[in-house]
Design a protein that fits this description.
The protein is α+β, with helices and mostly antiparallel strands. It has a domain of about 80 residues. It is about 35% helix and about 15% strand. The protein is built from three helices and three strands. Strands 1-2-3 form a three-stranded antiparallel β-sheet. It is globular, with a radius of gyration of 17 Å.
Length: about 130
Amino acid sequence: MNIQEINNFIQQEKNNHSINVKDISDGHHTFGELYKNRLILFCTLCNCNPDISWKSKKHFNEETDPMFQGDFIAGINTPEGIATYHIKLEFWDLFQIPEIERAPKYDNYDNETVLKRIYSLSKKYQ
């Protein structure tokens, strides 16, 4: 089986409610564990830097880009630009950072850009 076939199988089984994707493991960690780790690490980073962090229940333009159902967006303003993640509303209170009316406008960044931007924060400690 190639990667595409594996992904198609997972999507099919997810749609059939046969599996919970959060339980899929690489042999060390499940997807659920990895997402929880990301949540706690990003939350900690934001909470330790509340002067450059924010959270919002609305995207910049809700008409053309509505928020995902049950999510909010948390962000941090790094030296290289904004880094954000969508977070489930159940974790809203973990983020002890300012709430803003609308998230800043999305500048078409991807996951690699987010990681680069977050890493740019480490330069202030060097």
